[in-house]
Design brief:
Oligomer: single chain
Number of helices: 8
CATH superfamily: Ribonuclease H-like superfamily/Ribonuclease H
Largest sheet: 5 strands, mixed
Number of domains: 1
CATH topology: Nucleotidyltransferase, domain 5
């Protein structure tokens, strides 16, 4: 399983998770990556249970993390990361991973090879920008971090 985020300014990271993602672990990732490196961004999350738990909501409040309202599940026009995962899967399939360690390496390498120009050209990126502009979220393109969890295998 991989947990990743993409900021609208092009910064991004991906982390390999050994186990299933639960609220305490998710908040630990938020603390170690998002809070320490990307505070003052607006967090967009999907409806994964670890993203919506009472524990996580409390963590958001105590760390003053601005969170966008949830969007409907399976909303590819609003979910940039689904488009990124499609690109990533195509790239990773070109490799012949012989074991899990190689697969993890290929995923991380290919994730960071995706050009920023591709990210901002995605229809979902434009839809998110328009949607939240309409909701008066100022400086969306400079102040949003997209964080998702996705099971790759």
């Amino acid at each position: 399983m991989f947990w990743d985020f993409i900021c609208a300014d092009g910064r991004r990271d991906i982390v390999c998770c050994e186990d299933t993602m639960e609220s305490v672990k998710y908040c630990s990732y938020l603390q170690n990556i998002f809070v320490t490196k990307y505070m003052n961004k607006i967090l967009q999350k999907d409806n994964a249970s670890c993203h919506c738990s009472k524990f996580t909501s409390s963590f958001h409040k105590s760390h003053k993390i601005d969170v966008l309202p949830n969007y409907p599940a399976c909303s590819p026009d609003l979910n940039i990361i689904e488009n990124i995962w499609a690109i990533l899967k195509d790239s990773v399939r070109r490799h012949d991973a012989r074991n899990l360690s190689e697969l993890r390496t290929f995923v991380k390498e290919e994730f960071h090879k995706i050009a920023y120009t591709i990210i901002v050209s995605l229809k979902a990126f434009q839809s998110v920008s328009q949607r939240f502009f309409a909701e008066k979220v100022s400086n969306l393109l400079n102040n949003i971090a997209l964080i998702f969890i996705y099971l790759l295998i």
